[in-house]
Design a protein that fits this description.
Elements (H helix, E strand, L loop, with lengths): L29 E4 L1 H14 L4 H11 L1 H4 L9 H11 L10 E5 L3 E9 L1 H19 L1 E9 L5 H5 L8 E7 L7 E6 L7 E6 L10 H13 L11 E7 L7 H13 L3 E3 L2 E3 L4 H13 L1 E4 H13 L10
Parallel strand pairs: 3-4
Antiparallel strand pairs: 1-11, 2-3, 4-8, 5-6, 5-8, 6-7, 9-10
Helix pairs in contact: 1-2, 2-5
Length: 313
């Protein structure tokens, strides 16, 4: 169970500020809806756009990841802004079948042929996990994918298998250099890192990090030979093939436990801790959605003959 540190900040004054009676209700009202109901509705919307059922569910989970972990600007709001337009204009093919270009046991190169990245990157991680179970490490170099959401979510697909996941992407101009990593943290909430190294590339001191991503995700996958394409490196590592499970658990617990503390009354936590707590809250109390996003989803549900999302609280 995630630890819930007691705040050391002084309590706020009990005197409430007076609010004018004519203060309007803001448009961006946040309403809570059941987490599974949200994912199910997004999945059904994708099925209505010709997605196979299994792909639709995986893509919906990836799309809703931002809403469930406290980053709604990268969540379901992108359904109408990015993903449905990409399907309608042909940039993404709902039923594209991946083409295996090279298979070397622990490593493979796959062209996903314009499949949505929301499903394809997760599928690549599942393939990497299967290979890691046999060889200790599984590496999938991939290209030919549409928008894929948060790379941290796809890296975290390795966690239920007790493995370390790594995902990085490069290629298309403006796509940035996202890097995601997930690792078991022993007795503590799992470590999930999700960053974009694009800013680092503008700093000569850190430009090497962006070049690292370009080489491993872009050059290796061959996207330099394809216009408007993005390449990714998807890696799974099975640590217990190298050392005992007990030894890895104890070492991970010691590492991530040493990262916890307080500074100036503010808790110090590593990436993944707060996201895990936010996810627990969403599952118990519902996922907060802004009023405009809620209306858009209810409108899509109505168009498919489905009931609107249920309000909680």
């Amino acid at each position: 169970m995630p630890l819930r540190p007691r705040s050391l900040r002084p309590a706020r004054s009990a005197v409430a500020q007076e609010v004018p009676e004519d203060t309007p209700i803001p448009e961006q009202v946040w309403q809570r809806v059941p987490a599974d109901e949200l994912v199910t509705l997004v999945s059904l919307i994708l099925v209505a756009h010709d997605f196979p059922d299994d792909r639709a569910r995986m893509a919906a989970e990836a799309l809703c990841h931002g809403d469930l972990t406290g980053s709604p600007d990268t969540g379901v709001v992108e359904l109408l802004r990015i993903h449905l337009p990409a399907l309608e204009n042909g940039e993404v093919a709902a039923r594209a079948e991946p083409l295996l270009i090279a298979d070397r046991g622990a490593a493979a190169l796959i062209d996903y042929r314009r499949a949505t990245g929301l499903w394809a990157v997760g599928d690549a991680m599942d393939r990497a996990v299967t290979r890691a179970g046999r060889f200790g490490v599984g590496l999938i170099s991939m290209r030919g994918v549409g928008p894929f959401g948060r790379v941290g979510h796809h890296a975290a697909r390795a966690l239920p298998h007790g493995m370390i996941g790594l995902v990085m992407a490069a290629g298309e101009v403006g796509s940035g250099h996202p890097l995601g990593m997930a690792a078991p943290a022993g007795a503590y909430p799992e470590f999930v890192l999700d960053v974009d190294l694009g800013d680092a590339s503008r700093n000569p001191q850190f430009a090497g990090f962006a070049l690292l991503v370009d080489v491993l995700a872009g050059v290796l996958s061959g996207v330099a030979d394809h216009e408007n394409d993005t390449g990714l490196l998807v890696l799974a590592i099975a640590p217990t093939t190298l050392r005992s499970a007990d030894g890895f658990y104890r070492a991970a617990s010691a590492l991530f436990g040493s990262m916890l503390g307080w500074e100036g009354g503010t808790p110090i936590r590593y990436p993944g801790w707060r996201e895990a707590q936010y996810l627990e809250q969403c599952r118990a109390l519902g996922v907060p959605l802004s009023a405009p996003v809620r209306r858009q989803l209810d409108s899509l549900a109505l168009g498919l003959g489905l009931p609107p999302l249920t309000s909680m609280g």
